């Protein structure tokens, strides 16, 4: 609360964003149900809405977020073009603005002055409040996206953003509606409702995913893992893992965790449309989980004598915990040692190969030098004959 008092003097309203949120939001809760109840909405229109929703969400999660903001892999230009077009259709700003703000969010997470959507400033602020006013924490500074500024496709998006964003929303919805024979029904659910729903699903990552869920990997920030949010955000709900290992292309790192974005990137990788998929080594993930388990166990032990005095022998558990921690440290040290040995052995093998290759080149050079020497002798003889 004290932190909010510092921000009491409200900055000016960002009118374009506010009007868009208010108008589309109002239409989604009044016009759309009214139309639906009066004229009915065809199944086809709902299918188109779901397809558009998936295309928009995946372009934001796999494109804007994991490809451009975090560079967790590289993608073929056709894939990037898809992300750029359907990401613009989600109306969440240009890749430049989205990725720049998001990189600041990761570096300054939870900082009330530097994190553009700090969850410490409350649900409303982190959900969409940060976009409806021109807060100092939200001022653009593209110094952190020099890599993206070299991309011609993203520069094209920046120059024509409004046209692409409005054009895709109107044109794609109208074309699909005309094709399936339910023009206005499609405009309602695939045009308006889909846009509002897709935006709020993404906004939940900045708000709810920093408030509701578990913290298996780190408690150094507010980010949470939440399976329910992961379901509606195409995998982005595993936000605790993501904040700790942001350079991994996966967010739901376990095989059973719902992360369609991860599956899409892996599938693109398997057909050659995505490359350099970055993964955190398994041992680092295990290490983070076990460290947190120890931290939690110690905190529980510290309170145990008050909570359940008769049920457990606190000293015995403490000794067992210390023993486990020793074993954990020993295993990590052993892992590092074996890994170093492996690295050394690989280096040696490489050196040996280089030596063999060096000898090969040296022999070739010597052979050429010998040929030149012989030629010089032949020339000398020739000169002698001519003299
Ligand atoms: Zn976050
Ligand atoms: Zn991120």
How does the SSE layout of this entry go?
Elements: H1 2-5, H2 15-29, H3 31-39, H4 43-69, E1 74-75, H5 77-89, H6 95-107, H7 123-132, H8 146-149, H9 152-159, H10 161-180, H11 183-206, H12 227-232, H13 239-244, H14 260-270, E2 274-275, H15 282-307, H16 314-386
Antiparallel strand pairs: 1-2
Polypeptide structure, described:
This protein has 387 residues and is an all-alpha fold. Helices cover 70% and strands 1% of the residues. The protein has 16 helices and two strands. It has a two-stranded antiparallel ribbon with strand order 1-2. Helix 3 runs antiparallel to helix 11, helix 4 crosses helix 5 and helix 5 crosses helix 10. The longest helix has 73 residues, at 314-386. It is extended, with a radius of gyration of 30 Å. The structure holds zinc ion (2 copies).
